[in-house]
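Entry for the shared binder. Reason: the reviewer on the internal report wants the predicted structure included alongside the sequence.
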Amino acid sequence: MRTALLALTTAAFVTVLTEALPAGVLPGLSAGLGVGEPAAGQAVTVYALGTALTAVPLSAATATWRRKRLLLTGVAGFAVANTVTALSADYALTMMARFLAGVAAGVVWALLAGYARRLVPDGPGKAIAIVMAGIPLALSLGIPAGTFLGGLFGWRWAFGAMSVLAAVLLAWIAARVPDQPGRAGGRLAVSRTLSVPGVLPVLAVTLVFVLGHTVLYTYVAAFLGHAGLGGAVDVVLLVFGVASMAGIWVVGAVIDRALRALTVLSTILVALAAALLAVSAGSPALVYAAVALWGLGWGGVPTLLQTAAGHAGGEAADHAQAMLVTLWNAAMAAGGVAGGVLLDAAGPAVFPWTLLVLLLPVFAVVLGARRHGFPATS
């Protein structure tokens, strides 16, 4: 099962890297498509929209599909979308390919946690943590590698490499990942899934937690410039990535017996990081300490929320996780917009305060969902 789990981890890696790669090769992408950088940057927004708009409907429409067939379809979508992006010189065609990639991401994200749970039923939380390790790996290693490749050979080669990786992953899944059945009962209505006790609290925490994180993370370079570390963005993000990996390791080790405690702890760590960043002006050491706490707290959050959604959803787990994916991407898009408004209106110093304020309802909901959502015994 370890090989199968690593294939799913690679699928998570490909998903995140496909989403974020345009940011790392933005100048070349802009020049290659003959548009300005703001227009080229919409490649990330269009991807998020593709995921947010289609994750729930596709989850419902494919509820009875065999899981391996659906996973292969999603990864094939990445291969096609990245190939078109690598070859296209037309802006509209590229945006269509990016939307397709977002649709593929919605399919894959809605599958991964449930697939991992069924592969390792006696330790589902740890299995999900292994799969979700693909997220920080993509952010801390994949994006720098893709950016380096794009700088060395051109941005098209970076997307071409992603197509090759997706093709290899298709063969890996076909050969080593066991099949699983779809949901025998067929489709479930959104309203029915939302009525399952615990699903709404998990979704509410997802929306607000991701919104707060994204507001700060998207504009972290602007904040670091304000804090006097504008020339050390890469180092700061490396610290964040390494701390995130440590956070995932800790969560994976004990999540199956301490989901609630870990969610509370993660919220507290990110809140402490936001508070430190809010008062860190003129102190690089304080900024680095805060970023390490931020990464340590945030690293396990995707695993915690996916696991919580799966536990709460029960028979509707796949649909609940599709809703989580939708809200996650909606929160990312909203965070980017809200951060831009805040930057213009109040400057970068407001970002950690914004995160801190948004974490208050997150903390309240987690504490209140003691019976369902984030139960005292998981």
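Summary line for the report: The mean pLDDT is 89.
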